UniProtKB/TrEMBL annotation:
The keyword ATP-binding applies. This is RNA helicase. Residues 49-212 form the Helicase ATP-binding domain. It catalyses: ATP + H2O = ADP + phosphate + H(+). It is an enzyme of class 3 (hydrolase). One of its GO terms (biological process) is RNA splicing. The chain holds residues 457 to 1152 of 1192 of the full protein. GO terms for molecular function: 3'-5' RNA helicase activity; ATP binding; hydrolase activity; RNA binding. Its EC number is 3.6.4.13. The keyword Hydrolase applies. It comes from Tigriopus californicus (Marine copepod).
Length: 696
């Protein structure tokens, strides 16, 4: 067997060598069909189809790049399965869904959005004709609300199962019962790692098929001493590789967008200082990067330059890059984790797990032997890194999941069939949050508000804000604000022009609210006929604004379907602030000193983010609510609105008297159940208090 592998590898290496030597000629002549037939999965195509025919659920394991994501959908389509319904393939990441759909459309020689399409939140690129549909796992989860048996699909491929994203984990539970009801549905679960037996057991001891892989040895080199600054270390390492190493592209793993941008800048800067340095094509990749720039990472760099891709963990298994010989691993990634101190999820930088680290180094051995530089010590790898990452379902807020499952009629969430059940107190805390928002009643049932909230693909607080804006007479205004909050940064601040861009931004600022500042920007853009020129002049991302407009249109559609009244409060911005307060009173802070706030509920100190309209202005607000927290050296509140302290007392009195939870697990659980009991009592008290106030 080993011998076979060796021969196969050698053949492949020779092939690559030819490819390298005759680069331009050969790759031009190599058709997409030939490329498809060269993938490892092609060699087992018929075997695979046989297993799929004979079983309703199968698990497929294969190295990254073996062709799972791009080929399986096409094989099933070629076999005629799409006669009975679409083939859906879920991805935990938006970028992967888009990029892979584009690739498959190219391979099938069709326009993207026709036979092959994709769907991600707020962006549906499919049509009547679509037979192969790539989508985020969140989209399929929402589709199951409308169509519990997913009747439009003949097959579902749950890709990247090893990622254990929150939505994938919930889908596992749901699909397990869908396949028991629909014997005609094919369910394929794919994973890049070997922990597949767990998936097989979960679905009732179903077959596991392993795609024979091609991998080359990777030399793993550790850093000798602890690295203080991983960006700096990565920059140095990559320049050294570039100046002294052999041919081959480079892949650098960074935790997030900010670090990626700095790394790219610094590599270019430092290389410019080296005399006669050969050229290097430095390319970033992260989820918010515009898609035309994303596509670049797959292309060969022009003029035979070496390519250096700086990526988040998206390049770990979701996207496959060919020709990588060097990997530089910072050892960190960003993860969403529930932070009990602030009572909500926060994106934070964490060390990767050993499993991540091994996937990362594996990226260097796809097309030939490679080298991986780990920017941490051997001892850190062995002693500090967890073996695998904790699944998202066990570390994040579950409010949206609870809302969704409740509306699917799952009565007792503690008994739902999860592969790895979330801690009970997570579920109870999320239920508590939904109760606070008024989405659940005292018995844990969905309220009318809760049922309406499910209709919107938004976080619970945002959907609540949109729904209550109707009766407050400002639904059109809140619609714009919610849309603005659903896209990443609107303002840009180019290097060297910081002062100009800050001055431009200041003109939009409404001193008491970032939310209103957003509303203001949108109104002005609209009165300038949605002009791109206007955006450029005011240091505003035109693409982001166009996205806002699309999101707004889609949310407006849902509001119209729900027969919601659309009206604007005109210039009465107090109403809008009150509406924001009504949905975010659980994220409030009280002024303590100059620029210093404390969380009204937990007493934790918090700071205004320097980008806030309220920051450093003459105006100080005694009470504010915030949209989110950014954790760096301090806790920064981002997107803030000044509110009246009386509104807070009126809108959420029961909330502020709830005490912090205890320390140990058992104690926490006791407190969580206690919470549920206390809620009922406090709710009554609050009602009485309000009645009393009204009589004065
Ligand atoms: P797997 O899912 O098993 O990791 P894929 O199906 O994603 O493998 O990749 C198979 C091949 O298709 C790889 O060689 C990869 O480079 C190529 N490929 C995938 N997406 C693109 C794309 N957007 N552009 C160019 N090539 C791509
Ligand atoms: Mg894949």
């Amino acid at each position: 067997d080993d011998n076979m592998d060796y021969k196969e590898n050698q053949k492949f290496a020779d092939h690559m060598k030819v490819d390298q030597e005759q680069k331009s000629e050969f790759s031009k002549r190599k058709t997409l069909k030939q490329q498809r037939e060269f993938l490892p999965v092609f060699a087992v195509r018929q075997q695979l189809l046989n297993i799929v025919r004979d079983n309703s659920v199968i698990i497929i394991v294969g190295e990254t790049g073996s062709g799972k994501t791009t080929q399986l959908t096409q094989y099933l389509h070629e076999e005629g399965l799409t006669k009975y319904g679409m083939i859906g393939c879920t991805q935990p990441r938006r970028v992967a869904a888009m990029s892979v759909a584009k690739r498959v459309a190219d391979e099938t020689g069709t326009e993207l959005g026709e036979e092959v399409g994709y769907s991600i939140r707020f962006e549906d690129c499919t049509s009547e004709k679509t037979m192969i549909k790539y989508m985020t796992d969140g989209i399929l989860l929402r589709e199951s609300l409308r169509e519990p048996d997913l009747d439009h699909y003949s097959a579902i491929i749950m890709d990247e199962a090893h990622e254990r994203s929150l939505n994938t984990d919930v889908l596992f539970g749901l699909l397990r019962s869908v396949v028991s009801r629909r014997s005609d549905l094919k369910l394929i679960v794919t994973s890049a790692t070997m922990d597949s037996q767990k998936f097989a057991d979960f679905f009732g001891n179903v077959p596991v098929f392993k795609i024979p892989g091609r991998t080359f040895p990777v030399d793993v080199l550790y850093s000798k001493a602890t690295v203080e600054d991983y960006v700096d270390a990565a920059v140095k390492q990559s320049i050294q590789i570039h100046l002294t190493g052999n041919e081959g592209d480079m892949l650098i793993f960074m935790p997030g967008q900010e670090d990626i941008e700095v790394t790219c800048e610094q590599i270019k800067e430092r290389l410019a200082e080296v005399e006669d340095a050969p050229g290097l094509a430095v390319l970033p990749i992260y989820s918010q990067l515009p898609s035309d720039l994303q596509a670049k990472i797959f292309q060969k760099a022009p003029d035979g330059l070496r390519k250096c891709v700086v990526a988040t963990n998206i390049a770990e298994t979701s996207l496959t890059l060919d020709g990588i010989m060097y990997v530089v691993d910072s050892g960190y990634c960003k993860m969403k984790v529930f932070n009990p101190k602030i009572g909500m999820d926060a994106l934070q930088i964490f060390p990767v797990s050993q499993a991540n680290a091994n996937q990362r180094s594996g990226r260097a051995g796809r097309t030939g032997p490679g080298t991986c530089y780990r920017l941490y010590t051997d001892r850190q790898y062995r002693e500090d890194l967890l073996a695998t990452t904790v699944p998202e379902i066990q570390r994040t807020n579950l409010a949206n999941v609870v809302l969704l499952l409740k509306s699917l009629g799952v009565e007792n969430l503690l008994q739902f069939h999860f592969m790895d059940p979330p801690p009970e107190e997570n579920i109870l805390n999320s239920m508590y949050q939904l109760w606070i928002l008024g989405a659940l009643d005292n018995t844990g049932q969905l309220t009318r508000l809760g049922k309406k909230m499910v209709e919107f693909p938004l976080d619970p607080s945002l959907s609540k804000m949109l729904i209550i804006s109707e009766e407050m007479g400002c639904s059109l205004d809140i619609l714009i604000i919610v849309s603005m909050l659903s896209v990443p940064s609107i303002f840009f601040r180019p290097r060297g022009r910081e002062e100009d861009s800050d001055a431009a931004k200041e003109k939009f600022q409404v001193p008491e609210s970032d939310h209103l500042t957003y509303l203001n920007v949108y109104h002005q853009w609209k009165s300038n006929r949605y002009s791109g020129q206007w955006c450029a002049e005011h240091f505003i991302h035109v693409k982001a604004m166009r996205k806002v407009r699309e999101v707004r249109a889609q949310l407006k559609d849902i509001m119209e379907q729900q027969k919601m009244k659309l009206s604007s409060s005109g210039t009465d911005w107090d109403i809008i602030r009150k509406c924001i307060c009504a949905a975010f009173f659980h994220q409030a802070a009280r002024l303590k000193g100059i620029g210093e706030y404390v969380n009204t509920r937990t007493g934790v100190p918090m700071h205004l983010h320097p980008t806030s309209a309220l920051f450093g202005m003459g105006f100080t607000a005694d009470h504010i609510v915030y949209h989110e927290l950014v954790m760096t050296t301090k806790e920064y509140m981002q997107c803030v609105t000044a509110v009246d302290g009386y509104w807070l007392a009126e809108l959420g009195p029961m909330f502020f008297s709830v005490k912090e939870t205890g320390k140990s697990r058992g104690e926490k659980r006791k407190v969580a159940t206690e919470h549920l009991k206390t809620m009922e009592r406090e709710m009554k008290e609050a009602e009485e208090e309000l009645k009393r106030r009204k009589t004065f």
